[in-house]
Amino acid sequence: MKRKEVMEQLREMDLNELREQSDSLKESLFRLKFKKSLGVGESVNDIRRERKTLARVHTLITQKEAQEKAEVK
């Protein structure tokens, strides 16, 4: 999936869905690193992609939390 498509999907999610996505990405990243350590396939690009997506999710979580705080004030 293209980066723009992924970002559009992530922006449409609410805060709870983003947190769930973050947890699933962390688990996926753990599994990819484990497979790499076992030598089962070349997954360096997959690891890099998952890390970047996880960073994007964390950025969106921070933005949405700040937005909610601004709305409360």
Quick structural gist:
With 73 residues, the chain is mostly helical. The chain has helices at 3-12, 15-38, 44-72.
The CATH first-level class comes to: Mainly Alpha
CATH topology: Helix Hairpins
Structural class by SSE content: mainly alpha
Strand content: under 5%
Mean pLDDT score, rounded?
90
Extract low-pLDDT stretches: none
Biggest sheet statistics: none
Number of domains: 1
| Element-by-element helix/strand order | HHH
Q: Treating each run of at least 4 consecutive H or I residues as one helix, how many helices? A: 3
| Number of beta-strand segments | 0
Q: What proportion of the residues is helical, as a percent range?
A: over 70%
How big is the Rg?
15 Å
For the record, the CATH architecture stands as Orthogonal Bundle
CA distance, first residue to last residue:
38 Å
Shape estimate: elongated
Give your account of this protein's structure:
- With 73 residues, this protein is mainly α.
- It has a single domain, classed as Helix Hairpins.
- Helices cover 86% and strands 0% of the residues.
- The protein contains 3 helices and no strands.
- Helix 1 packs parallel to helix 3 and helix 2 packs antiparallel against helix 3.
- The longest helix has 29 residues, at 44-72.
- The radius of gyration is 15 Å and the shape is elongated.
- The mean pLDDT is 90.
